[in-house]
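Reply to dn_fold:

You asked what the input looked like. This is it:
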Amino acid sequence: MITPHLSSLHIYPVKSVHGQTCHEAIVEPWGLSGDRRWMLVDRSGRFITQREQPRLALVAAEPLAEGGLRLTAPECPELVVGVPVSGIAAPVTVWKDKVEAVPAGAEAAAWFSAYLGSPAGLVHLDDPARRRPVDPGFGRPGETVSFADGFPLLLTATASLHALNSLIARGDHAQEGPVPMDRFRPNAVIVGTEPWAEDSWRRIRIGEVIFRVAKPCGRCVVTTTDQHTAERGKEPLRTLARHRRSGNQVLFGQNLIPEHRGTLRVGDPLHILE
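and this is what came back:
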């Protein structure tokens, strides 16, 4: 039996673009360092994601020194974007949250607009310590989150993915499986547990960092998007709807809130505290 441990780490420098795998990552109160500090918005300031633009999966955003980005995408010139230092924060919308963010400028907006074929601006979360609080139903006063959907980190487990893929293999769209873990866009992936063991966790330690397990993650159409081709199918949502439904949501993975700063490293052991 494998001792439960952290098998991989991932950040998404721009919300909803292709992920970056790393060997270690600093845990900040609002998430992993460099994770989802940038986001795309439409003309009204509302966030743009793979839900309506699956081709964002093919955009790579490489983190650079001082928080900048190197952007690449099919049939697009490479673009380097620095952190806007003199811009004025403007209101943007993430789900129901109104958040202040700083526009990255006309060049980045033109690059993304040309790639997506519709107006899109790039914005930067300049002050994650105070811009966007965690849902008060699950967070504590003063806890904040980046441009992630709702919580600082998302954890998934390989045993649960294997169990899900076994269910897909017996279903109507077996040809779409097995689905890879990148469909779920996790930050931390755990190996060595029993399938769905994470459902019962309330407080855990990975390496030196303690996390509260806030709630299961409700999944959307992004999970049906191949992160390497941007093509969509029916799975895994079809199978999750049959076997992992809670009310109007289908579930995979757990949302985490860190209790303190620290560093996560691939290979760190997992301990269940509660």
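The chain has three helices and 20 strands.
Hope that clears it up.
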